[in-house]
Amino acid sequence: MKADVIKLDAGKAGSIDLDDAIFGLEPRADILHRMVRWQRAAAQAGTHKVKGRSETSYSTKKMYRQKGTGGARHGDKNAPIFRHGGVYKGPTPRSHAHDLTKKFRKLGLKHALSAKAAEGNLIVLEAAELAEAKTAVLAKAAKELGWKRVLIIDGAEVNENFAKAARNIEGIDVLPSIGANVYDILKRDTLVLTKAAVEALEARLK
């Protein structure tokens, strides 16, 4: 499929061929859902913790005699049945991450790219470069291009001046091609790929 290439000043810079096997798939919500769940699960802190019976600080002395009270036969106030006792099978620190195959992760990224292309929210930029790290310059360009919530993916490395200028603009995220991921692509309204990013992603996903 063909796509127009633009410059930061909104001028045209020709066109580019996008691989249909990467940008022309019919997006599947189930694949994208599994990918987002996988990413968010891996990022989840998993630091929740409660005290078990062996960690609460009550005396272990037997509360009252075994027989003759007419009540239950208790021996330790750390038991889960008592207030402030240890929690039975409560949460402990653990990883929430689960596995997805490399093949599926590649497929998920292809579907995310195809989803943006199908919506008409995929823009190809000639280069994400600035002569100076001026936030005002990039903010003006973004306003003229109508970019509000946008993810910009560059090649192997992000231009330092461009990254610094984008750092203070709300709604603009910049990533190198190796950092391209389904969650960040879907989270933003518009996806902007540089020509270098297109080449890098096609090489990565073939």
TrEMBL record:
GO CC annotation, single: ribosome
Entries under InterPro entries matching the protein: Ribosomal_uL4, Ribosomal_uL4-like, Ribosomal_uL4_dom_sf
Keyword tags: Ribonucleoprotein, Ribosomal protein, RNA-binding, rRNA-binding
Domain of life of the source: Bacteria
Region (Disordered): 46-81
Gene3D superfamilies tied to this protein: 3.40.1370.10
Pfam families in the cross-refs: Ribosomal_L4
Quaternary structure and partners: Part of the 50S ribosomal subunit.
Family: Belongs to the universal ribosomal protein uL4 family.
Described function: Forms part of the polypeptide exit tunnel. One of the primary rRNA binding proteins, this protein initially binds near the 5'-end of the 23S rRNA. It is important during the early stages of 50S assembly. It makes multiple contacts with different domains of the 23S rRNA in the assembled 50S subunit and ribosome.
Protein name according to UniProt: Large ribosomal subunit protein uL4
Lineage: Bacteria, Pseudomonadati, Pseudomonadota, Alphaproteobacteria, Rhodobacterales
